[in-house]
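re: that chain from earlier
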Amino acid sequence: MAQMGRPRTFDRDQAVEQAMHLFWQHGYDATSLAQLKAGLGGGISAPSFYAAFGSKEALFDECVQRYLATFAQVTECLWDGSLPPRQAIETALRQSARMQCEEGHPKGCMVALGVMSAPSPESARVVDALTHSRTRTRAGILACVERGISTGQLPGNVHAPAMATVFDSFLQGISILARDNTSHEVIDAAITQILLTWDITASSAPPAIAMANRD
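^ sequence. v structure.
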């Protein structure tokens, strides 16, 4: 009698990582169950998939949480009060650009691209965590601008939400540039240019404040 082979081991942690890359690359709606079954652990059956993850939506939620706990941490510096506000924004932009352009995972940002991840009304809820993350990042940028105003690094007449939107829209746009294979060097140079928005605005501060900022 032929001896049965040992059942293939299933590395669930690795499967979540593989699924995250699929969702990151294609979005929630465009990633089919067939793609997931074929791409996880070298291929798994439908019963094994549902036993391990429950549903496609539950797996997506788990992948989002993994992304937020790892790759998305590049913008956490926005909430670091020990950093000068301009430096916090610059660090977030440069770290995010570097992450989005590096090899080893899909280009772009899963959080930013999540706005296109589930376009159908019945799937809209699955991207709530990504929407919340974008909102939190936007709030972090705004907090930096407001801190710049309150500490005199920016003039008091600066429209904080408008300036924050300049940096936030640039940050979101990095995802499209990375997907289009714009080089990291070009994006990094563009960050230097966008930061001139802060520098030029800061230079219009009253002389007494500008002098205090140099001390």
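Confidence is low (pLDDT under 50) at residues 1-7, 208-215.
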